[in-house]
Amino acid sequence: MAARIRALVVSAAAVATISGTPGESIQAAPAPPSPTVPEAALLPPATVPHASARDGFDVATALSTPDRGQSRVDVGGCEDVVHGRLVGDGATGQGFQSAVPGGQVSELVARMTNPPDLPAWAARAGRCSKVTVDDAAGTAVSTVTVHPAPVVPGAKTLSYEQLLTLPGQPPELPGLRLRTVAIAADDVLVVLRDAGTTGLDLDALAVAAWRHAAGPLGR
Fold it and tell me: Model confidence over 58-116: pLDDT tens digits?
């Protein structure tokens, strides 16, 4: 069952952190490319405890790659929340994914003309707290819980958790847990996400990522 849940995640949820499909109201209209983001803006590998197999990616290139497949969500307007689409067209930046004990962690640092409205995203996530996703990989239930986000002076923040389970899955069998923390101000967005049972303090790691990115971005 765990293997099936992981297969569903690939097409139904948060691996697509930087999916390029614009949000219904969260994402702004396409804009000219934003200023570049150097790789130095990302957290150094040693900052993520016990991370290995770090794979980097370019945000603009990733945004140009179509989704793996279309999915159907049984509540209108919840697709972007279910797929974790915090970054839309016109963004530039850098990101990475790393394996860590219990799962994986990823970070992206993006610049865009109109960063997402994180309070609006949190409100949308609250309305999309439990929806069913049906796609080529099968059917899963997405349960989203919004948490108090870390306080960062001069920035808007977001913290939420998503649990993916199979319909009718017994409570004693855990699904796949995904956590997301985002920080945005001006034209900069930093997103940290982990999947699985990593035990990472994602709030603290996101704040550290935000502070680290300030220097390379000239903030």
Answer: 998 888 765 545 566 666 778 889 888 898 778 899 999 999 999 999 999 999 888 88
Angle at the Cα of 128 from the Cα atoms of 126 and 131, rounded to 5 degrees: 145
Cβ atoms of 107 and 16 closer than 8 Å: no
Q: Which residues contact 28 (CB under 8 A, 6 or more apart)?
A: 88, 113, 114
Q: Are 50 and 100 in contact (CB under 8 A)?
A: yes
Closest CA relative to residue 141, chosen from 85, 196, 86, 82: 82
C-alpha distances in angstroms, 204 versus 30, 37, 81, 167, 211? 32, 22, 23, 33, 11
Q: Where are the beta strands (DSSP E) in the chain?
A: 52-58, 72-73, 92-100, 103-111, 130-135, 138-147, 156-165, 176-185, 188-196
Provide the β-strand partners of residue 57.
95
Question: 54 — phi, psi (to 5°)?
Answer: -75, 125
- CB contact at 8 A, 175 and 169: yes
Which residues, including other chains, have CB under 8 Å from residue 79's CB and lie 6 or more apart?
A: 21, 24, 71, 73, 85
Please give the model's pTM, rounded to 2 decimal places: 0.82
Taking the C-alpha atoms of residue 212 and residue 219, their distance in angstroms, rounded to an integer, is 10
Give the position of tokens 């040693």: 46
85 by Cβ neighbours in 10 Å (0-12 / 13-18 / 19+) ranks as buried
